[in-house]
Amino acid sequence: MTCSPYSPNDYKSDLKPVWCPGCGDFAVLNSVYRALADLHREPHETVVVSGIGCSSRLPGYVDTYGFNSLHGRALPIATGVKLARPNLTVLAVGGDGDGIAIGGNHFMHAARRNVDIAYFMMDNEIYGLTKGQAAPTTPSGDKTKSTLYGNPEVSVDPCGLAISLGASWVARAFSGDVKGTTELMKLAISHHGFAFLNIISPCVTWRGDDQTKELRAKQRAVPAEHDRSDRTAALRFTNEDDDRMTVGVLYDTQRPTLVDEMLEIRDKAIGIAPPPGREEILRVFAPAR
Amino acid sequence: MGRTLCTGNYAAGHTLAVAGEANRAARGCCGGAYPITPQTEIIEYLRGFNFRKGRIVPVESEHSAMGVCIGASLSGARAFTASSSNGLAYMTENVFAAGYYRLPIVMIAVNRTLGPPWNIWVDQGDSLALRDAAWLQFYCHSHQDLVDTIAIAFRVAEDARVMLPVMVAMDGFVTSHTEMVVELLDQERVDRYLPPCEVPHRVQHSRPATIGNLTWPRETERHRRDIQEAMERVPAVLDEAIGEFESMFGRRADGAIVAEQTEDAETILIASSTMAATLRGVVRARRLRGERIGMIRIKQFRPFPRSELLRAIGGARRVGVLDRNHSPGSGGIFWNEVAATLHSSDILLQDYIAGIGGGDVTPEILDSIIDDLASRTAAVDPLWQEVAV
Ligand SMILES: Cc1ncc(C[n+]2csc(CCOP(=O)(O)OP(=O)(O)O)c2C)c(N)n1
Ligand code: SF4
Ligand SMILES: [Mg+2]
Prior knowledge:
The complex is a heterodimer.
Chain A: H1 25-38, E1 46-50, E2 65-68, H2 74-84, E3 89-95, H3 96-102, H4 104-113, E4 118-123, H5 158-165, E5 169-174, H6 178-190, E6 195-200, H7 210-218, E7 219-221, H8 231-235, E8 245-252, H9 258-271, H10 278-285
Parallel strand pairs in A: 1-2, 1-3, 3-4, 4-6, 5-6, 7-8
Antiparallel strand pairs in A: 5-8
Helix pairs in contact in A: 1-6, 3-4
Chain B: E1 3-7, H1 8-21, E2 29-33, H2 40-48, E3 54-58, H3 62-74, E4 78-83, H4 85-100, E5 106-111, H5 125-128, E6 136-139, H6 143-158, E7 166-171, E8 179-183, H7 187-193, H8 217-232, H9 234-249, E9 257-260, E10 267-271, H10 273-288, E11 293-298, E12 300-302, H11 306-313, E13 318-323, H12 333-341, E14 348-354, H13 363-375, E15 383-385
Parallel strand pairs in B: 2-3, 2-4, 4-5, 5-7, 6-7, 10-11, 10-13, 13-14, 14-15
Antiparallel strand pairs in B: 1-8, 6-12, 9-11
The structure holds thiamine diphosphate (TPP), iron/sulfur cluster and magnesium ion (MG).
């Protein structure tokens, strides 16, 4: 084993997190520090892009390049960064609301295009920053600030969504398990293609102290015999009706990334004959006599 | 209802709710809602209100929130929502659509600085960026002003002579989150004040039609001119709405502009929203010291009240405009409008940009601005007035 030139502390910025005491996002942040250190990622070659939300404050706490962008817009910006500088490690991070509500359309296209970025969604089943309104991940029936009489909507499982949208790597983590989350982050960052990690990260303020306990009790590991390349099998661990939360890699496949495809097109284009000259064009369009 | 101590957001939420409820004998009310600081309490109030005929639905973004309002209004319901800052920016495409569809939607804009960089405090850049969206715009300086303006907004928006959406703006936190004693409107009188909402071009089974099809330039031009003409009818309609408001509720609501001590004034300051409330104290104090100074609060930004303003400015020699907003490459946005209004006069008109990003524009700062204005022999480019924080 080679020794990392970096320790997790090297990725800490001078900003002190302003999350509520007990917020699951602290553990996510620690896992990010550890994963980057373990993978020896140079801070100056790493970019963390977020949207807006409690969770989206994360880039400010990491001593790499970062964008705290607009609500819901992390993925297009991360795509731009990756296309311009394919050699950089690009992470997109943010909340469930950011990624599935207001930014939901970008999730589809980043996954479908297989942009080579790792996307960590900190999922607390609520809009935390705006003080507790229902998100698309909020379970049906739950009372929140915007669903005073119970949430009438069907909730979304981000992993199920990612798999059906074409993400090439999909996993679920529980933030309370820093070691497990770190390992999954490392796999996500190392994956060649769009890697989606849904991190269940409790909001103690708007979902209550019990959320952490309940989620911890519900989690179970992906069974050893699960075939990660089997999309249909992977979908069985989403929208689980036995009210469990399967943690680990659900889906893992390889296909060309957006950058691979673009490079291939460029190479092909280089081999094509130069465009026709003026005489040639006039000849083609000249009226028949 | 009696007098109540409440926040600006509560006052706005309550007034929207009673206005929506007032349409229960007609086609009810509806709106889409999406949270953003500092307006969130408004939509939360509406979510908690048990409308007898209507619903405010939480949706996934501001774009959709205005989309729901458009659909509801096109179906004849009384439609309303609230937003702020980047929420308004994201909603923009549908804000224009609502104006161009001629739908009498009412939206509360709680002014907050646009990001990035992120900032939650007040400036008017968010709603003023929508000044060309075919909406009426009112900027309120107090909780009572807000309540009265919202009720009047529905009257004016839904008037067949206008039939345009209305944005009612207040200052983020300074108004939205502070408490003031306010006379809230009771349901019974709002029921009488607001006639049933009638959108003449609403969808009707007896008249199937597709709205918003491709048009030729000439048709589009006529459509825009129709909107301009509707804007020109606003002063008369607003006057009526204010008059009837007074006979119903027993108090006179503010009109397009509020001029104070301008009759013999040599110097006039122009401001809007809560900055105008601070300015009032400063101007009064200087009057007591014998200065011939007055002020004008511009409440109605669209349509811009040119003739009212010209009348109020009268024979003043110097006019200073206070802008808590900024159009990069130009200057203050109110100043631009005032300059266009005064184009043929030789008044010394100076712009002061103050409180961008929510800085506290204190009476001391306003005093120093007025001193600066008094010392000028000619106007210069817009001046930036830095504040303490
Ligand atoms: C265009 C726009 N609309 C609304 C907001 C207000 N807003 C900020 S964060 C947020 C939701 C946050 O929820 P989520 O993304 O799940 O993050 P969390 O705070 O729960 O980590 C909203 C609605 C905004 N900043 N920009
Ligand atoms: S509100 Fe919830 S998500 Fe936001 S910092 Fe507090 S605990 Fe975390
Ligand atoms: Mg969330």
